[in-house]
Amino acid sequence: MDLLQTITDAFETVKEETSLEKVQEHCKIALEKPIFDELRRKYLPFLRTWFANYTLPSYSDTPNILFIYETRCHANLEFILYSSAYFAQGWGLHIICSSSNKDFIVQLLGDKVSNVYIQILSDTVDGYVANRNSYNEFLKSASFWNSFPESKQWILTVEVDSYLRKSIPISEMLTYAYCASCWSWKDGPGGGGITLRSIQAMKDICAQFPTLADEIWPQDCWASEGIHRLGFAYNSTFFMESCLQADAIGVHQWWTFCVPLDDERLWYLNRYMELDIKEMKDS
Q: How many helices (H) and strands (E) does the chain have?
């Protein structure tokens, strides 16, 4: 069964449902696996070879950090790791994991492991809900943000239901304290599964609004509100979640918001399944 038919079938299952939220929740869960199966089929063979030959910079030598937090042996992790490294070449790699998936991550890194900053959580966090809760608390923690020395300036967070499509345009993006996906339901800096943040800005949020982490649970909402209160420059056009954009650099759960498949959404579907990998285009 092809991807288009899978998406159509997922919508048909709940098309009589009157709650848009329930339709979207069903599609979010039902479509993640076929989306990433297709991405793996198309791109993972190349990305495996590329990563094996890539000179990953030492974490200590770069001000820019690619950050992945995942405590499970997640099926998407290999693709996310290699594709993110490809589109953020020259960035150091910081991974938060647990004792239950450490060996899996070390295996994926291969001979690059000595160049990566790996933090192993003291408490094993298994399961979707526990991992999500731990992740949200971690990224709102003053102790986490203040652990970075001044030499670390920017952090690119990528969740395992997100992926980059194109290379990070550093000269454009690093003029903002915060880059995230706009929300269709709320104005402001936004959030989502991929964000680019000034580490100093996150430290400032922690210092200026120490109770904000208790008031707002999702970590991206916490960051968005902090950026808004401080009046820092932000951009919500580079990444995409619920507001369809033609040329998003990175996407998060777009399949949740891409049904029913009319002609416009079908165009976006095909667009978001294409990664800008020059070597594959040239071959």
A: 12, 9
